[in-house]
Amino acid sequence: MAQLTRRTTDLLKPFSAALSSTRLLTTTSTTPITVETSLPFTGHKIDPPSRSVETTPQELMNFFRDMALMRRMEIAADSLYKAKLIRGFCHLYDGQEAVSVGMEAAITKKDCIITAYRDHCIFLGRGGTLLECFAELMGRKDGCSKGKGGSMHFYKKDSGFYGGHGIVGAQIPLGCGLAFAQKYSKDENVTFAMYGDGAANQGQLFEALNMAALWDLPAILVCENNHYGMGTAEWRAAKSPAYYKRGDYVPGLKANGMDAFAVKQACKFAKEHALKNGPIILEMDTYRYHGHSMSDPGSTYRTRDEISGVRQERDPIERIRKLVLSHDLATEKELKDIEKEVRKEVDEAIAQAKESPMPDPSELFTNVHVKGFGVEAFGADRKELRAVLP
Amino acid sequence: MLGIIRQRVASCKGFPALTLEQGIRVVASQAYSSNSKQMTVRDALNSAIDEEMSADPKVFLMGEEVGEYQGAYKITKGLLDKYGPERVYDTPITEAGFAGIGVGAAYYGLKPVIEFMTINFSLQAIDHIINSAAKSNYMSSGQISVPIVFRGPNGAAAGVGAQHSHCYAAWYASCPGLKVLAPYSSEDARGLLKAAIRDPDPVIFLENELLYGESFPVSAEVLDSSFCVPIGKAKIEREGKDATITAFSKMVGYALQAAEILAKDGISAEVINLRSIRPLDRATIYDSVKKTSRLVTVEEGFAQHGIGAEICASVVEECFDHLDAPIERIAGTDVPMPYAANLERMALPQVEDIVRAAKRACYRSN
Question: Which residue intervals are annotated with compositional bias (Basic and acidic residues) in the record (chain A) (predicted)?
Fold first, then answer.
């Protein structure tokens, strides 16, 4: 299954170790289970899909582990930032993991994803490694962008992840362009262009959506509505915060973004729609525990009660934990063991990333162009530092 | 590319002392003046796009009126009929949207040619040009390349007023990651546009509306479908020994006219057609200034932080000992473009301005 194959074999070892005791024989790990989404879907100019979602024990366990990994990674990034090993901007995704994990369960690596700057977990979901994440965050050469991008510029083109963009809203026309190219190339795949409730008011979204609709592009616009655009609550920024309806003539679907199965169902539904009928908007009702970035405490425009309330009532990992336990797929201890392993995996990746050197000074001048024609480029003191662009 | 011209140089009699590069330029300018056929810049651009679309199915066109209207300035005439609506896309009037869509398509591996009806409108899309296109290859450490061309008429037309007459060469040319080209003749238009479309990096291709209808001689080499002009190499349009004049786009024509007038007054001016604003062919400029010791830079755009300013700084850094006079800059007047014909004329460089500046550089008062 897709989720398993993209990890190292380490994933399989602890999993089978956890299962060595009693339940969940491997012969039943692909037995279909039906799960009901926590809430119904709401449709705009479209009939919503059913709340019943097909899954398997394998997938449930994968959801748990993958989200636990993402959660752990983001918490660790918080510490690294406070230790000043990560510099500049750092936008954390903890709370929103279900959107990435649910989406990946519905699609393939030939489908494309593009997002804004809250991209660490999306990158991981697309098959990126922890080492590539942490090394990039710390500006080391083993980072996914060899240390030259930073937190907001993770890419993994070979599995359809096109970044990682710092300018709010820009990724939406870019995503529609990816969908354009997929249609042009007759690829039968779709693009998920992700954006937040803040970006949902950008003019270029409507420009791109208009063209996507005119040309029937297989573009799925996914609004991760965490209810705050930086420090501004949605009701202060949007006259109409029903983002799934904002496409007007483009159908929309709203799903509970804290429920990985709702996300999976919505994305599956959207992919089928987009391939036949052109663009559709998905609104994922989600929440971020951290502030907008590490420079924002996140508590000046939200109450601590609200944040802890969401954590208690709607946490995506807790939802899966309850499902796993209620379906008897693992014990509480086994799940805690998985979380311990995940923590260990993250710690090891951080240790390895810390060993990775900073990029060689010669890398300052590489990749400016694909084809540089041997042109000269200059440093701050042009008499002192110059290079030839290959 | 220059293969055919190199062969001609090798067998070319009478220029044994020249270096290969100089020889190529001489032969090219000979070919230029040998009058095989005349072609308008418009037809040159159209044929270049046509040939590149024919050669590579990944090349597609996008822009306002490029299809059914046959192009606002008829540059894309006939291409919708020939290639169909799956290769030629008429867009709504939404530059930010379609520039972004073009860049996204380039990320995926297609080769978009995006037309801005004038480069003035590219400002609506400038975030995509700079932040989504120019910087992506660098930020991704080579994973995401952007083989896109943004093209359109740049600078002043005739009487179109302040918002439609601005030259943006300096704006784009300051940005690492972009290539900025500015053709003058039909040969430039064909060769540079073909090179731009084939180039794997984002290219800003600055045309000029008033040049579209001008005819230039084109040789058989230029008409060949493999013809390309190298990016990053300037062309010596006219050899001279007393003063160097650099120019690009329409100003090349003005510089050549100025050189004619100067010749009658005993000043032999060397006219350099920059062709490539970024990368700038500094070597050609330095060689010329080392020969003439005097420099006049000419551009339509504003002087402050302009192309001439960059050339001046560069030449002072590298050729200081060779200069016999301060460098002269001829540029657009420091005002938004006025509409009235007399004021518009005063707002743009004229041939007499270039002549006067060259004479000043030669310490001639008349």
Answer: 302-312
**Alpha-carbon gap, residue B6 to B20, rounded angstroms:** 8
Q: Nearest C-alpha of chain B: how many angstroms from A153?
A: 6
Second CATH level (architecture) for the domain B235-361: 3-Layer(aba) Sandwich (3.40)
Every domain of chain B with CATH number 3.40.50.920 lies at 235-361
> Using a CB-CB distance cutoff of 8 angstroms, which residues of chain B are in contact with residue A182?
108
Q: Looking at residue A179, what is its pLDDT? A: 98
Instruction: Tell me how far CA of residue B110 lies from CA of A334, B59, B107, in angstroms.
Output: 48, 6, 7
Parts of chain B belonging to CATH 3.40.50.970: 38-223
* Smallest CA–CA distance from B145 into chain A, residue: A370
Does B132 score more than 70 pLDDT?
A: yes
Computed over every residue of chain A, the mean pLDDT equals 93
Tens digit of each residue's pLDDT (9 = 90 or more) over B27-80: 444 444 555 799 999 999 999 999 999 999 999 999 999 999 999 999 999 999
Q: A371 pLDDT exceeds 80?
A: yes
| In the predicted structure, residue A22 carries a pLDDT above the cut 50 | no
Determine contact: B128 vs chain A, CB below 8 A.
yes
Report the Cα A302 to chain-centroid distance in Å: 23
The answer to whether the CB atoms of B103 and A174 lie below 8 A apart is yes
Residues of B tagged active-site: 95, 164
Pick the CATH number of B38-223 from 1.25.40.10, 3.40.1160.10, 3.40.50.970, 3.40.30.10: 3.40.50.970
Shortest alpha-carbon distance between residue B184 and chain A (Å):
22
pLDDT of residue B34: 53
In 10 A of CB A320, how many CB atoms? 27
Q: Where are the alpha helices (DSSP H) in A215-290?
A: 234-237, 260-277
- Measured between alpha carbons, how far is A97 from A314 in angstroms, rounded to an integer? 12
**What ipTM did this prediction achieve?**
0.92
- Interchain contact A358–B (C-beta under 8 A): no
- The residue written with tokens 């850094």 in the block is B317
Q: Which residue has the higher pLDDT, A35 or A10?
A: A35
Nearest CA-CA distance, residue A378 and chain B, Å: 11
| Residue of A117, A183, A375, A386 to mutate when probing chain B, most B C-beta within 10 A | A375
Give yes or no for a contact between B65 and B117, defined as CB atoms under 8 angstroms apart: yes
Q: How far apart are CA A325 and CA A328, in angstroms?
A: 5
Pick from A137, A165, A140: which is nearest to A78 by CA?
Answer: A137
A368 touches chain B (CB under 8 A): yes
Q: Is B240 on the interface with A (CB under 8 A)?
A: no
Whether the CB of A126 is below 8 Å from some CB of chain B: the reply is: no
Summarize pLDDT for A26-41 with one digit per residue, the tens.
Answer: 436 889 999 999 999 9
Model pLDDT for residues B318-362, shown as the tens digit of each residue: 999 999 999 999 999 999 999 999 999 999 999 999 999 999 999
Average confidence (pLDDT) over A103-109: 98
State which H helix or E strand residue A176 sits in.
helix A171-184
